[in-house]
Amino acid sequence: MGSRPPMSRRGFLGLGASLAALGVAQACSSQAVPLSPVGPTSPLVGDLERTRRAGNPRVVDVGLRAKPGTVDLGGVQVQTWSFDDRVPGPEIRVRRGEVLRARLSNELEQDTSIHWHGIAMRNDMDGVPGLTQDPVRPGLNHTYDFAVPHAGTYFFHPHVGTQLDRGLYAPLIVEDPDEPGRYDAEAVIVLDDWLDGVAGTPDAELERLRREGMAMDHGGMDHGSMGTGQSASGPLGSDTGDVQYPHYLINGRIPAAPVTVGAKPGQRLRLRIINAGGDTAFRVALGGHRMTVTHTDGFPVEPVETDSLLISMGERYDVVVTLGDGVFPLVADAEGKDGRALALVRTGSGAVPSADVRPRELDGRLLQALELVAAEPVRFAPERPDRTHVVELGMDMSEPYRWTINGKTYAEHRPLQVQRGERVRLRFVNKTMMFHPMHLHGHTFQLVRGRAAGARKDTTIVLPMQTLDVDFEADNPGQWMLHCHNIYHGEAGMMSSLSYVA
Description:
Blueprint: H1 9-13, H2 46-52, E1 59-72, E2 77-83, E3 92-95, E4 99-106, E5 115-117, E6 141-147, E7 152-157, E8 170-175, E9 185-194, H3 202-212, E10 247-250, E11 260-262, E12 268-275, E13 282-286, E14 291-296, E15 299-306, E16 308-311, E17 316-322, E18 327-334, E19 340-346, E20 366-367, E21 387-395, E22 403-405, E23 416-418, E24 423-430, E25 436-440, E26 445-449, E27 452-457, E28 459-462, E29 467-473, E30 479-484, H4 487-491, E31 495-500
Parallel strand pairs: 1-4, 3-8, 9-12, 11-19, 16-20, 21-24, 23-31
Antiparallel strand pairs: 1-2, 4-6, 5-7, 7-8, 9-10, 12-17, 13-16, 13-18, 14-15, 14-17, 18-19, 21-22, 24-29, 25-28, 25-30, 26-27, 26-29, 30-31
């Protein structure tokens, strides 16, 4: 982001026609929008996209093949689906303001798509079949073409069924040449929980949950209970997931065969950490070091030093560490579960830590998003919301596995309506005994934390039996998904949509 002062909603409205609405989604229906061929001159592009392209930005062309195949997780061979036979898939790196043109070839046996998680792009490129595009059928191609408005750490994955919980994900890094701060080296760290090709498939796991429901042995608490508060057993409560995974990965490798990040003693290393998991939050620490958190979900925060951080599905954190001399374990402990992921940071000679190493930093200070304050240039100006939507997160106990928003599954939902230029508050009310990482497409919101300006994010943890308010500027017209980023909760109904209306 640049160094502009906070812009009020009214200042935004004063920008006039150059930031007019996209034409794709004035309707408030949740049905699919008829789509036309897309290009820079398409009527679907709208004035906002054309404004972003006005300076003849550089176009970054990439090709992606979604395909089945065998992937090596570090001695464990699995049959899975991935982009270009890699887990994670190939990193895409662009600069803020550039145009990304990505051609997806679907070599799978199912429909697929690509959702560019966290990017506030034009609506028809958001990658949600039935809402923003037609599905990409097997054997066909689809081109995504959009200007990238904000720098930060992002990733991409399908928005079809449980495909995210296979190997179909990869980092998207948007650099800002004007970004303040100094670091000497950088590494992208992608966390994942893995069962595909080892313990069945994600589709089979979802069907099992729908058939049998969830085990009630996670701390002895009933998922549908309406108790008075969360358990004190951990920062996420006593029930931290529905799926037990045989493996946890960093950059596609199990702890017995970890990836190694090379650097030099004394260097400042920037770690861009992405949780691409389906059902697991991670507690992350680098042995022998404290981390300084500088960004979350792409946007800068006032720097905070910590021993470890908690990162849920769909969240991203950037941290900077000043490196010592030796070989250090970067550990992502599966919060509330048995198992962890491991990578190594090597700056010199030394013994390699064991695969089950547990650095003491994991038991030190644990940072969570509500402690963070947005950096001054990206804070919203203080304003009362023009509209508040209550978003009640629930579970229907009449069926074994049915998650809801405002008492409805996605198939039954009514879109939450907003108008362009409004300051909108989403009040998440979690009436379940599980945490939910709630993700809004096409926007970033600001966590409401009293008088302080909370962090700017697009995915946030809503704790069991708790209420959390977030505010966003309705400045990107279209129809946008709002859902839990636990892939099994979302597919079992915990999804809704946000629709701009005239």
